[in-house]
């Protein structure tokens, strides 16, 4: 066992719930360095893809022509787009393999309802509770685990994007190679479908990141200009107690959270 | 007044000097003349020829009578007297469908551009002129522009330059009446603009194919003709010119076909995607806006009462 990871991960420290108040550190690690690198690659390639692909959505606009010139013209923009796309897909594959490794070695508690990233029925309940709170119909916010439904939505949106935009993008970038794997019955519709999928889902991804991710990680009260967790990997115990009370309780017991 | 007099004298001297006619001789008058004149047939023709424009065109080194064969010095009086070769004369009834002033000049293209002219006559465009005698079918000038100012196709101002071709073809292929009359798809131009090739083309990518790159130009055929470069096995070869190794499954990709309900997966797929996209937009945006409101409420409007965060 890798002791370093064990300790720094925090959550593994006490999968057994502490019955007595533990000494609460000032900060705990939320994302280890591998996750942070994966996230940085994801964010850089995402921005490059969004920027170089954007002009193709409405090419007839003058702004699109101006914009694509900034990226070295349509040919260069296309090359950047392909390189960034392949890099992102490799990053994704790395992430999935890494997740399997962590799951297999027990480093990530994917099956624990408090720490899991898997959407659960309680997430739907949390959405409803949160809306009630927004409207002032409830006095308390729902209590979140390590990953709230907001994080889960953000996270799985990337998976969805990888399958829909990533696969369609790979096929469109290497059409001659990919086409040999198409079954005959798909030939009549697969190409137009791929174009629509790539284009519409890319727009969805951009708008989603712009609203969901930017608001939740940059603009929320007290977070501006951003949550620094993506760089430090750390979250303060105070913030954990506020935003992820169930995870806090799991780690440090109810203690002063009562 | 004095300039007009000088012009008239210049014209007179040209008309009187019965030597070989140079383009510059004609342009002395036609370069200065403005406006249109009506012909006996009730049509009007432009009498002005821009000297600089003509000189800079690909035909700028020709004499006017290279094409205007029936004209000679002073020949404005009786241009029809001059005989033209029989082959050329046989084209005149057809070129007169298109040429208002001098159909001989339009037929004269064949003298230098024999290959293209022959190829064109056999094409779907050409047969509409030379077989069906349709005056709305295209002939040389409909694509290449005003005969006095034709530019090389490589010139970016040429109507048949890569950058301008979609617009040039679109003048007929986006014309509803013509589409209906000739049974052409009214969507080709629009759908090409929406295609990946078309989008890159609009953004100025010079490598993407445009109409003639796949369909051919002077010898163009209907897409369902066996000789069409975009049908059957020919299409695989045509795609392969850019996409090395392209096979039948690659060539199955529609370039700019209208996708209707007859092809339900992409047709309804697109509609479903729109619902999905807007559904997610509504959820995310409403969530963000409402949460912002609740944060302003908690942190600004009710600052004293510490609320929220699930820790109460």
Class of secondary structure makeup of chain B: mainly alpha
Largest interface: A-B, 56 and 54 residues
Which stretches of chain B are low in confidence, meaning pLDDT under 50 for 5 or more residues running? 307-312
Give the count of helical stretches of chain A. Answer: 11
Q: Flag low-confidence runs of chain A.
A: 1-19
Q: Structural class of the helices, strands and pairings of chain A?
A: mainly alpha
Order of helices and strands of chain A, N to C? HEHHHHHHHHEHH
Multimeric organization:
heterodimer
Strand content of chain A: under 5%
- Residues in helix, % of chain B: 40-55%
Fraction of residues in helix of chain A: 55-70%
Average pLDDT number of chain B: 87
Biggest sheet strand line-up of chain B: 1-2
Rg of chain B is 30 Å
Describe this structure in words.
The complex is a heterodimer of chains A (258) and B (312). By secondary structure, chain A is mainly alpha-helical. Chain A has helices at 3-9, 33-54, 62-70, 73-104, 121-134, 149-173, 175-179, 190-219, 229-232, 237-243, 245-252, and strands at 27-29, 234-236. The radius of gyration of chain A is 21 Å and the shape is globular. In chain B, 51% of the residues lie in helices and 2% in strands. The termini of chain B are far apart. Chain B is elongated, with a radius of gyration of 30 Å. Chain B has helices spanning 2-16, 23-30, 51-56, 64-67, 86-95, 103-107, 109-112, 114-122, 124-130, 140-144, 165-173, 176-182, 188-194, 196-202, 211-215, 232-240, 248-251, 264-301, and strands at 36-38, 44-46. Chain B has 312 residues and is mostly helical. The relative contact order of chain B is 0.05. In chain B, strands 1-2 form a two-stranded antiparallel ribbon. Classes of the chains: A mainly alpha (258), B mainly alpha (312).
């Amino acid at each position: 066992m890798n002791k370093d990871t064990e300790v720094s991960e925090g959550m593994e420290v006490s999968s057994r719930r502490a019955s007595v108040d533990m000494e609460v550190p000032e900060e705990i690690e939320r994302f280890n360095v591998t996750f942070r690198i994966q996230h940085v690659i994801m964010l850089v390639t995402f921005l490059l893809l969004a920027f170089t692909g954007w002009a193709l959505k409405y090419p007839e606009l003058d702004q699109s022509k101006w914009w694509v010139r900034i990226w070295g013209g349509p040919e260069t923009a296309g090359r950047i787009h392909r390189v960034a796309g392949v890099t992102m897909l490799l990053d994704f594959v790395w992430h999935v393999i890494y997740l399997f490794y962590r799951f297999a070695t027990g480093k990530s508690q994917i099956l624990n309802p408090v720490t899991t990233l898997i959407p659960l029925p309680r997430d739907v309940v949390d959405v409803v509770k949160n809306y009630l709170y927004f409207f002032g119909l409830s006095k308390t916010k729902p209590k979140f685990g390590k990953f709230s439904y907001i994080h889960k939505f953000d996270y799985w949106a990337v998976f969805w994007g990888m399958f829909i935009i990533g696969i369609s993008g790979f096929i469109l970038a290497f059409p001659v190679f990919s086409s040999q794997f198409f079954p005959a019955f798909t030939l009549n519709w697969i190409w137009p479908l791929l174009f629509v999928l790539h284009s519409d889902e890319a727009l969805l991804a951009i708008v989603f990141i712009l609203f969901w991710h930017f608001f939740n990680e940059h603009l929320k009260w007290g977070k501006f200009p951003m949550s620094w967790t993506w760089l430090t990997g750390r979250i303060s115990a105070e913030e954990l107690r506020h935003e992820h009370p169930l995870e806090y309780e799991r780690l440090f017991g109810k203690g002063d959270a009562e | 007044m004095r300039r007009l007099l000088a012009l008239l004298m210049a014209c007179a001297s040209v008309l009187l000097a019965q030597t070989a006619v140079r383009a510059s001789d004609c342009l002395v008058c036609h370069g200065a003349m403005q406006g249109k004149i009506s012909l006996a047939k009730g049509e009007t023709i432009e009498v002005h020829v821009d000297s600089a424009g003509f000189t800079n065109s690909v035909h700028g080194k020709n004499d006017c009578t290279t094409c205007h064969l029936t004209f000679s010095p002073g020949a404005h009086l009786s241009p029809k007297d001059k005989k033209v070769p029989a082959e050329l004369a046989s084209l005149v009834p057809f070129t007169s469908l298109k040429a208002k002033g001098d159909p001989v000049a339009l037929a004269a293209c064949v003298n230098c551009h024999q290959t293209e002219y022959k190829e064109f006559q056999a094409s779907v465009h050409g047969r509409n002129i030379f077989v069906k005698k349709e005056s709305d079918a295209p002939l040389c000038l409909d694509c290449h522009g005003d005969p006095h100012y034709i530019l090389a196709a490589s010139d970016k101002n040429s109507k048949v330059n890569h950058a301008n071709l979609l617009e040039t073809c679109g003048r007929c292929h986006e014309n509803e009446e013509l589409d209906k009359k000739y049974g052409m798809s009214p969507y080709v131009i629009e759908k090409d603009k929406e295609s990946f090739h078309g989008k890159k083309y609009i953004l100025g990518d010079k490598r993407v194919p445009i109409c003639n790159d796949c369909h051919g130009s002077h010898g163009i055929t209907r897409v369902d003709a066996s000789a069409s470069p975009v049908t059957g096995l020919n299409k695989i070869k045509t795609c392969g010119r850019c996409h090395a190794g392209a096979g039948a499954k690659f060539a199955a990709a529609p370039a700019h076909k209208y996708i209707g309900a007859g092809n339900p997966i992409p047709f309804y797929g697109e509609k479903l995607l729109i619902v999905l996209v807007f559904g997610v937009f509504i959820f995310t945006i409403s969530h963000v806006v409402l949460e912002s409101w609740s944060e302003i409420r908690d942190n600004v409007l009710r600052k004293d009462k510490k609320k929220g965060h699930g820790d109460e």
